[in-house]
Amino acid sequence: MAQALTDLDDEPPRVAKLSLELPLVRRVLNIGTWVMLAMITQFFVNYFDTLMVGYLDGPVATASQAALGLGMPLFWAVGGFFAALGVGAQAMVARRYAEGDMPKAGEALYNAALLSMGLGLFGGLFGYYITPAGIDFLASASEEQKQLGITYTQIRMMGVPGMVVTFAFKAFFDGLGRTWVHLYAALVMNFANIVMNYLLIYGNDALGVPRLELAGAAIASAASTYMGMAIMIGIAMRKSVRAQFKILSAKIDTAIIGRIVKLMLPSGSATVILMAGFALFMKFVGDIDAARNDGTNTMTAATKAIMDTAALCFMPAIAFGTATATAVSQSLGAGKPNLAARYGWESVRVGIYAMSVIGVLFLVIPEQIIGLLAPNDPAVRIAAAPSLRLVVAGLPMMVCGLVLAQALYGAGANNFVAGVEFSLHFGCLVPLSWLLGPHLGYGLEGVWLAAAVYTNLLGLVMALKFYGKSWRTIRL
User: Would you state the pLDDT for residue 425?
Assistant: First the structure.
């Protein structure tokens, strides 16, 4: 794969153009499509939680979806922080692979895997014990939302160790360009999650399975995570992979672990910042629900439905960003910084063109789209439709921001990305969503307008950084 990615010339990029550089696009699509399918498939593990609890009785479904809106940011803040070790591992594997040093690439996996086991266990325990206080702070819409949120999130935290180990092995295969490996694991995870969701959410008297509702969704998701982990480890332990990369003969190297942690901390912090911003975003929406004083969780459930729908847009953007990170890392490892820059800009162009089509659907049929997640509560669909249309205003620059953030991770500019995320979340998204939402009374549309402003600023800042050349000289 290194040959396929880096065998092109090192001509400078042309940023301001509409046409696509097809040789680069084909290479990014070749690995990015697998990443996108894997991430979307893995995303459906969480999406089906929202979807399938949405078919419970109306009030129960709405409260459960509102609880998910609080639980998922907290889960991803903890799990995502420790799983960010994959960012450093992927960058190191890609560089060593492009340099032709297979044992060093295997050594990076070995040390990342050991690190992931310790960090995963710690993260799961830490997340489990902070969940009650975290949900209590965020839940302002109703007591039912709080209790459901605590139960769901604590169960999901039990899956953090499996998630972190999975990301270590995913980083290895993504760094090699073998992005299809994670797709296989994600497909199994998703199928298992759907089956277990059906049994555990609704119950099955014939099989003696109790009706657990939202708690059942959490158990299914956590269990499926470990299935995915087992598949990733199994493929890495195949004889052909072990022999080529000398994985089992690798040694513990504190220098490698230190570099992985050094790269993990800023990218993991960026994830925490991102999720903290979204959690506060959800809290402000809960404040809007509370101010309505009708005992419902309509606005919170609507926001969760919008987030899950919008995730179908930003997941492909992150996926192509992950593929671009591999291309950028390998190009820099091959001594072709201009080629690395061209990969970044071509991925942005492809993403913007794809988002244009999705944006039209959001504008034309927003209620029907939200109705997929809220079939039993028309109030949720009506509340969400105007805000889903507002999301369209941020889609192009969202692609730019997410793709180039991943590309900068691939180059090793992790501190910059983390700094930008912190500044924009707590300097823009959080205060502006509070101001336009519960404070000035613009409701759900106000907080989503703030989100559109945030995504446009994110895209602008990442584009300016990538347009510069400082990231090209970072050594890993």
Answer: 86
Interacting residues of 294 by C-beta distance below 8 A, sequence separation 6+: none
According to DSSP H, which parts of 54-140 are helical?
58-83, 85-98, 102-138
Task: HSE, CB side, 13 Å, CA atoms: give it for residue 335.
Answer: 1
pLDDT in tens, 154-164: 999 999 999 99
Q: Which helix (H) or strand (E) element contains residue 374?
A: none
Neighbours of 195 (CB within 10 A): 12
Calpha distance 398→57 (Å, rounded)? 35
Q: Which residue, 260, 314, 281, 316, is CA-closest to 36?
A: 316
245 closest CA partner among 253, 254, 255, 237: 237
* Cβ contacts of 245-248, under 8 Å, gap ≥ 24: 245/102, 245/103, 245/105, 245/106, 245/109, 246/102, 246/103, 246/106, 246/107, 247/106, 247/109, 247/110
Cα(415)–Cα(437) distance, rounded to whole angstroms?
A: 31
Q: Kindly give the interhelix angle for 254-292 and 414-424, rounded to the nearest 10 degrees.
A: 10
Cα–chain-centroid distance for residue 454? 17
- The token pair at 204 is 């099955």
For residues 312-346, one letter each, b for 16 or more C-beta atoms within 10 angstroms of the residue's C-beta and e for the rest, the string is ebbbbbbbbbbbbbbbbbbbbbbebbbbbbbbbbb
pTM of the model: 0.72
Average pLDDT over residues 67-72: 82
What tokens appear for 356 in the block?
């244009």
Please classify residue 230 by burial: count the beta carbons closer than 10 Å to its beta carbon, then call 0-12 exposed, 13-18 middle and 19+ buried. Answer: middle
* DSSP H or E segment with residue 429: none
- Three-state DSSP class for residue 427: helix
Cα 31 to Cα 394: distance, rounded to the nearest angstrom = 26
